[in-house]
Amino acid sequence: MNYKFIPVIPAKRLLAALARFILSHNLLILLCWLVLLPACQPSGETWARVQNAGILRVGLDPTYPPFENADGGQLEGYDVDLARTLAEEMGVEAEFVYFGYDGLYDALATRQVDVLLSALVIQPERTRDFAYSEPYFDVGQRLVVPAGSPVQNIDDLSGLSIAVELGAEGHVQATQLARRLPNLEIITFDTAGEALAGVANGESAAAIVDNIAALIHPDPNLHIISLPVTVEPFALVVRIDDEQLLRELNQALSRLEENGRLESIRQAWFNQ
Amino acid sequence: MKTQLAQLKTVRPGTGWRLFIIFAVFAALQPAPLLIVPGPQQQVETNYPGLGLHTRLTDEVEPWKIQRSLELVREMGAPWIVEFFPWAYYQGADRNIAWEHPDLVVNHAHAQGLQIIARLGLTPDWARPPDTALNYLDAAAYDAFAAFAAAFAARYQGKVQAIVVWNEPNLSFEWGYRQTTPADYVALLAAVYPAVKAANPDMLVLAGALAPTLEPAGSPWGLNDLEYLDQMYAAGAAAYFDGLAVHVYGLTFPPEAEPDPGVLNFRRVELMREVMTRHGDGDTKMYITETGWNDHPRWTRSVRPGQRIQYTMNALDHARQNWPYVEVLAIWAFRYPAPTRSYMDYFTLVTPEFIPKPLYHELQVYTGNSR
Description:
The complex is a heterodimer of chains A (272) and B (371). With 272 residues, chain A is of the alpha/beta class. Chain A contains 10 helices and 14 strands. Chain A has helices spanning 11-24, 28-40, 45-53, 78-89, 104-109, 169-180, 192-200, 211-216, 243-258, 261-270, and strands at 55-60, 63-64, 68-69, 93-98, 115-116, 130-132, 137-138, 141-146, 161-165, 185-189, 206-210, 222-224, 233-234, 237-239. Chain A has a 5-stranded mixed beta sheet with strand order 10-9-11-8-12, sandwiched between helices. In chain A, strands 4-1-5 form a 3-stranded parallel beta sheet. The longest helix of chain A has 16 residues, at 243-258. The termini of chain A are far apart. With 371 residues, chain B is of the alpha/beta class. Chain B contains 10 helices and 8 strands.
């Protein structure tokens, strides 16, 4: 039996040598990173709870048709269908909890729900405390023209007229546009639906309305220009530390997009 | 080795000088900070001398934004602004007052030809008990607040026309999260009024501004504004204010909707007026320092954008034709420094990026300032 000689090194010298090695190899940062890594791990706590309970608690304000509405006692809407389908895709069941619009984020922060799905626009200012999913709908302004119109974007409107809902965001956009296109005439209507009717009956060459208005007033004589005038994406919201849940939601959204179920929900509510 | 060291010695100072020269050149290339000065004296052109806007310049730090806001107010044809000047922001524990920011706002507003109603409020740390809210003001600090109000009145003689003593004292939230009492508020008025008048006899002292609310007596949230005003008079308030500031919002009702003690709507002003006349104070003017409609698509107390415009115009007509006792009608709010991302954004006339909303343009036409 051969024994190799193992020198006995004092602990102090060993530690000093280790420290020199770490410093000389710039490993200090790596060491800190390894120590701190567990604390930075995404929390899977909420996702584990959702899985264990089999329930995804969804917060919403049911006063915003066609996205969520409970006026008739029956909760329904685009977001409601999306929440149920997402939950099904994730192997759990959606449970809806109602809040006022301005209380939604507080409800999420205080863990009364797992996710918000209530036609909420992504707000960069909130991303310190909350995380947003991939967008599932764009509510931004759209240019709507008669079918077959030569107008293909807002720059083609010079010398023409544009229909808008009085005072709405489309009106603001048109007013801004009129500073660039001096011959643009703005015609105001009381509602977005009337503005669209104004285009259909030839009163105006185009309308600027939000995407919801454009979709809920389907008219075969009108065409929605695909290039948006403005972009305002709706997304699901989770707490910033619920990265695992967010990942699951995004993956489920992606699968729904791929298998066509998201499109089916869109068609069901907007007759696309 | 010596040669290398010698080279280092000769290189290092040269490198330092070169870096210094590069830095100096770049520093010289930097544009000089833009000096924003109030500029020549302007005048508001308007056919509605009582129109005002509640600006939100308290948290606006960039002078050009303050100036641009006030230019837009003038160009819209509103001769009045209502602005908040928080005592807590200006007077530290050493009792010195930092006048820089209020000077900026007041001087720019004055240069634009605007008249100012200054709302004073919020208590500094040193003037309130520990662990109390910023809007907690008790009797021990009334004299200190009165001294600040007097200093403010003296400093801005000829530039600020009126001060509002506190804000919505009939709401517990605005009274330091305490149950609100009209008698306490009258004691505050009694401390402030003589101090301000001694400092600047021309300064108008406005009581209020009372919040529209239906809260009954004993409610932890506040007290009905009609009841509160009645109790203010009972506590002897009439001797301590020159005008009454009130807040009225139309909510979902048109401006013509009949006044009703059980409903909050625009014509609640008339009910407040009844309380004043009942107490023999019919000569005292009223100042509506907050009013308006909201067009948020989801807030349950909002109206459609077109309705908001129409209601606002009709409200101005109604006030001009029927309310000779209303001196100023100020719309909440002109612009916020940043989006609040809530229904509050839909009260404004101009976006944080200075893009005027259609209501701004309509008001501009209404005051005879259309371009």
